[in-house]
Amino acid sequence: MDTNLSDEEILAPPPPQPQTSGEEFFRIEGVYTGLGAPIPDGQVARWLLTDGPQIDSEIELFDELCWRLVGDGVPLWRASLHMGTLHPQIRGVGARWWRERKVIEDYRILHGSEDTDEYRLSPIRRTVERGMPMRRRLDGPIVEFPLLERLRRAGATDYFALPLNQTFRRFPAVAWTTDRPGGFSDSDIAKLEEINPALAAIVDTRAVRRISANLLDTYLGPQAGRRILAGQVFRAQGERLRAVIMITDMRNFTGLSDQLAGDEVIELLDEYFDAVASPVEERKGEVLKFMGDGMLAIFPAEDDEDFAPSSLRALEAATDGLARLAAVNQGRRNRARPELRIGIGLHLGEVIYGNVGAADRLDFTVIGPAVNLASRIEGLTKRLLRPLLTSSAFAEICPRPLVSLGFHAVRGLFQPEEIFALPDV
């Protein structure tokens, strides 16, 4: 699969499920059936500004826009809409529309694409980087733009790309292609230019909204991010939530930090958090924060009266994390790097989920006695020489068998707590 920014070409039928290119720079998230028929209107720009904001999905919006343009006499054959974004893995997102197939594709551009020949030779590159329109009639062989040559061979006759409003030093862009003999007429070009300011206004708002959601998801987690965007932004605003709490901590991180160079410490932390956080997210848990070399995660109970499913997911995430960390350590041994050792504490109970902090600097987290006990149980992993420990409340609810290690004093509690661990195998 080609990886040409938003204008990569796939002339074979679209894949039935999300696919990733060999270089993993271009990824199709989904292929959807479009409206499939022209929509006569004559007021496309007005529709964009009045009805467009009410359409939640960019995919649905762009599909309807293309069919409205066809209904207005513009002979579109293919169209793509590209928006840059801020995300640790994704460089850009977009939609690609096909008239003949009556489908629209939702795609992602991954970081690294800018180093490929496909990007450097993209006809839309100047539009994205410098905000320059691009018009090229496809009436003969094209050497400098491989994509346009592939489109020409597939039947395209004209290509027209326009920049939208600049966002974070780059320009979102839209590219229109026709297969009509002779290409776009002057009237067609005028119609596409006429709607561009309205399309730019709609895309600008959506790009900022997407970037805000991406950053909140990345730094706070998807559940917390959605709550904040929904307006839960006031201090002392929270809700009572029943959940399984997971606390992890790395052993001897201070000593490792003293021994290793700064970039090696970052590499170590990235490998550790990848190993323990990914299983949490894969099992409907949410990582709320990374605290130095520690992690706080929760698994909300879907039924307030039944902790069993969330306890099982949490235990599976913990054991999977330990297994992944073992694989990480094998790689670190092969590279003559120090191995990582961690402790995990699991408990369950009621927590307060919401904003805590100063008047103008808040943290969205969970607090309460259940969180404190989970942290104390994790601390016991050092003394009991077990990587994973749970409370008696967790062991009583969890469907998997756990073994008692007896009663142990827990800092901050008057009574000792019975501690459980995985059975020896």
Protein model, in words:
The chain has 2 domains: 19-219, GAF domain (Beta-Lactamase); 234-421, Alpha-Beta Plaits (2-Layer Sandwich), CATH 3.30.70. Mean pLDDT is 87; it is low at 1-23. It is of the alpha+beta class. 39% of the residues are buried. The strands form 2 sheets. An 8-stranded antiparallel sheet has the order 1-2-5-4-3-8-7-6. 38% of the residues lie in helices and 28% in strands. A hairpin with a 4-residue loop joins β4 and β5.
- Quickly give the structural class: alpha+beta
CATH C-level name of the largest domain? Alpha Beta
Q: What is the rounded Rg?
A: 27 Å
Largest sheet: 8 strands, antiparallel
Tally of individual domains: 2
Number of strands: 16
Features:
Alpha-Beta Plaits, 2 domains, Beta-Lactamase, disordered N terminus, 425 residues, eight-stranded mixed beta sheet, alpha+beta
SSE blueprint and pairings:
Elements: E1 19-20, E2 26-33, H1 44-50, H2 58-71, E3 76-84, E4 90-98, E5 103-110, H3 117-120, H4 125-130, E6 134-137, H5 146-154, E7 158-163, E8 173-178, H6 186-220, H7 222-229, E9 238-250, H8 253-259, H9 262-282, E10 286-291, E11 294-300, H10 308-334, E12 342-358, E13 361-367, H11 369-384, E14 388-391, H12 392-397, E15 403-408, E16 417-421
Parallel strand pairs: 12-14
Antiparallel strand pairs: 1-2, 2-5, 3-4, 3-8, 4-5, 6-7, 7-8, 9-11, 9-12, 10-11, 12-13, 14-16, 15-16
